[in-house]
UniProtKB/TrEMBL annotation:
Tree of life domain: Eukaryota
Entry's localization field: Cytoplasm; Nucleus
Role this protein plays: Thiol-specific peroxidase that catalyzes the reduction of hydrogen peroxide and organic hydroperoxides to water and alcohols, respectively. Seems to contribute to the inhibition of germination during stress.
GO MF annotation list: thioredoxin-dependent peroxiredoxin activity
Name under which the protein is recorded: thioredoxin-dependent peroxiredoxin
Pfam families, per the entry: 1-cysPrx_C, AhpC-TSA
Chief site of localization: cytoplasm
One GO cellular component, as annotated: mitochondrion
Residue stretches making up the Thioredoxin domain: 63-224
Catalysed conversion reaction: a hydroperoxide + [thioredoxin]-dithiol = an alcohol + [thioredoxin]-disulfide + H2O
Signal peptide span: none
InterPro entries named among the record's database cross-references: AhpC/TSA, Peroxiredoxin_C, PRX_1cys, Thioredoxin-like_sf, Thioredoxin_domain
């Protein structure tokens, strides 16, 4: 009896253990199901907005190519300027400099003044901006013109002491700050088209001055591409061959460019690299 009772007790204990194991397993499954439900809720009610945020995160930060330049109104050395009115139906080079009465900026703005006639030939206007006030700009212009006699600063320089405009124009240098800890502008330059959209941007750190010949070349390339619906190859200069975009078929190219075109003979056998001349 005792032996039978002991055996029954063992069986009862095993059955209890199995039942307990099942309860624990079911509890774990319930916990997993609850966790899964929480994850689903999190996905639909939290992750969906986060996905939108992620999309905006991977997008280019701030004003960039293809964006419409903000229609800001600022004081300048030529009085109040509203950017869209200033652009009108022309191209504008909108450029920032880190600060008045600084060495590299002085050489740059003197060069801008020296190239003003070249830009004017191309129907391009110049518009500067920094965080210094208008009076500072006016006083500094005397130094600029003295540094390069004959290079008169005839273009306006806008003042943005609040630093709000340079943020909207994506011209903030993340590393350079003034004595009060305020961010300074970078050496940014946007070429803005008649449609008020950014066509091309250059961005330099404060320690590197811009190359004005390259700015002129970029303007020429943009205007040539817009006028003839072509692209310009590496190191292109006016008068040199341009590239026919790949979206234009050979038949279309023959109609569009009656002067003819040359197709590069490449190992791939693909005729995507085509050159032509435009007036």
């Amino acid at each position: 009896m005792d032996g039978h009772g002991d055996g029954g007790g063992q069986h009862d204990s095993q059955r209890y253990s199995r039942r307990r194991g099942c309860h624990e397993t079911n509890l774990q499954c319930l916990r997993l199901d609850t966790f899964a439900l929480q994850q689903l809720i999190s996905f639909f009610f939290v992750s969906a907005p986060s996905a939108k945020a992620a999309q905006s995160f991977v997008a280019m930060p701030g004003l960039t190519i293809g964006d419409t330049v903000p229609n800001l109104e600022l004081d300048s050395t030529h009085g109040k300027i509203r950017i869209h009115d200033f652009v009108g139906d022309t191209y504008v080079i909108l450029f920032s400099h880190p600060g008045d009465f600084t060495p590299v900026c002085t050489t740059e703005l003197a060069a801008m003044a020296g190239y003003a006639k070249e830009f004017d030939k191309r129907g391009v206007k110049l518009l500067g901006i920094s965080c210094d006030d208008v009076q500072s700009h006016k006083d500094w212009i005397k130094d600029i013109e003295a540094y390069k006699p004959g290079n008169r600063v005839t273009y306006p320089i806008m003042a943005d002491p609040s630093r709000e405009a340079i943020k909207q124009l994506n011209m903030v240098d993340p590393d350079e700050k003034d004595s009060n800890g305020g961010h300074l502008p970078s050496r940014a330059l946007h070429i803005v088209g008649p449609d008020k959209k950014v066509k091309l941007s250059f961005l330099y750190p404060s320690c590197v001055g811009r190359n004005m010949d390259e700015v002129v070349r970029a303007v020429d390339a943009l205007q040539t591409a817009a006028k003839h619906a072509v692209a310009t190859p590496v190191n292109w200069k006016p008068g040199e061959r341009v590239v026919i975009p790949p979206g234009v078929s050979d038949d279309e190219a023959k109609e569009k460019f009656p002067q003819g075109f040359d197709t590069a003979d490449l190992p791939s056998g693909k005729g995507y690299l085509r050159f032509t001349k435009v007036g």
